[in-house]
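Sample intake sheet
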Amino acid sequence: MQSKQVEQAVNCFKSGFSCSQAVLSAYAGQFGLDETTALKVSGAFGGGIAGMAGTCGAVTGAFMVIGLKYGKTSPKDDEAKKKTYALVKEFIKRFKAKHSSIICRELLGCDIGTEDGAKAFKEKNLINTVCPNLVQTSAEILEQII
């Protein structure tokens, strides 16, 4: 059974928001960040950061959630920094175990930052097949590690 946040993230993505927006907005309220701000902050990270097919937006959205929960708020809080980095590394390990990569172009099998890649993305309907699964995986891993 999916948690409320996992379901919320997938539904947010399916409603038309980016992968990063879907993941961050599903968890933002737990950490005092309103949904509108979460959507704005994470808006540039979709499509592998600004549609350049780099690090998957579902992954960067998860990093933001980890930062909201454990991030350093004092220059001398090295323990918070260590914990945040450790959890990001654990997230990456788990995500790669399921999907082999955290890079958008590798996950999709095409580079959406190019004209040909964007065409393949649309023709293969990856936005409705692969991407929701990546959002779901990110949210599920967050449920386990935060």
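Comment: The mean pLDDT is 97. The first helix runs from residue 4 to 14.
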